[in-house]
Amino acid sequence: MFVFANIKFLYLLIIIPLMIVLYIIVQARQRKRLIKFGNIEMLKGLMPNVSGYRPHVKFVLLMLAVALMIIALARPQMLKKQENVQKRGIEAMLVLDISNSMMAQDIAPSRLDYAKMLLSQLIDRLTDDKMGLIVFAGDAFIQMPITSDKVSAKMFLKTIQPDLIQRQGTAIGSAIDLAVKSFNDTKQSGGRAIFLLTDAENHEDNAVEAAKMARDKNITVNVVGIGTPEGSPIPVKGTMSYIKDKDGNVVVSKLNEELGKQIAAAGNGIYVRASNTGATIKALAKEIDKMQKGEFYSFSDDYDDKFYIPVWLALFVLIIEFFIFRRKNKRLSRINIFEKKQNKQ
Question: How far apart are CA 185 and CA 48, in angstroms?
Answer without folding.
Answer: 80
